[in-house]
Amino acid sequence: MKRVYSIVALSILMLASLSSEAALTISVAPAEAAVAVDPKAGETPIESFISGCLDSLFDAGIIATTSPTKTLDAEQWGDRAFGLQGAREGFVDLVVALYVVWKPSVLKKGVLVAAGCDYRILRVSSGAVVASGHVNGSGDSPEAAADPDKAARMAGAEVGRVCLPWILRASNGGEG
Asked: CA-to-CA distance for 141 and 42, rounded, in angstroms?
């Protein structure tokens, strides 16, 4: 009986070591557009947006890290090298570069809602673009104005869901 347990334990350890060798390492590199609004508007809910994105990837079995959010114009974000330097140093396989644009809510002063998010998924080893696209934001609604963090989390989760098939395809060696 001890032999059976030993074989089962050894099998489990072998499978665990194989799966960890094939693990895909993802980094989310967020950026947001500067928002020209009343300075009293406060900060954008970017942290909630990123949290929603990471949560949706985690729910799908993908573990991702994040880098600090940059405030950039679209041209700076358009540089394909955005997010790659830190990822190369951190032994990351793929970077999901995000560019979130915010707009002021017309329903509640001082609230910002996500107008949309451009994304670009890059293979770190080659810098190749696996996929890119745009996801519309949460929109301005009474719900978004009442709870901008929740709206931002939901918008970020949608971006994660849109990026997931591309990430999975890239993990199998596919390109965009």
From this structure: 19
For helices 148-171 and 46-59, the axis angle rounded to 10 degrees is: 40
What are the tens digits of pLDDT across the range 46-87?
A: 999 999 999 999 999 998 999 999 998 888 898 888 888 777
CA torsion 48-50-55-57 (nearest 10°) is: 160
Give residue 59's Cα distance to chain centre.
Answer: 13
Residue 169, classified by CB atoms within 10 Å of its CB into exposed (0-12), middle (13-18) or buried (19+), is middle
Q: Which backbone phi and psi does 173 adopt, to 5 degrees?
A: 90, 0
With a threshold of 0.90, does the pTM exceed it?
Answer: no
Burial level of 37, CB count in 10 A (0-12/13-18/19+)? middle
Average pLDDT over residues 41-49: 84
Structure tokens at 9: 């334990």
Q: Helices H, strands E: what count in the chain?
A: 6, 6
**Residue 131 near residue 166 (C-beta atoms within 8 A):** yes
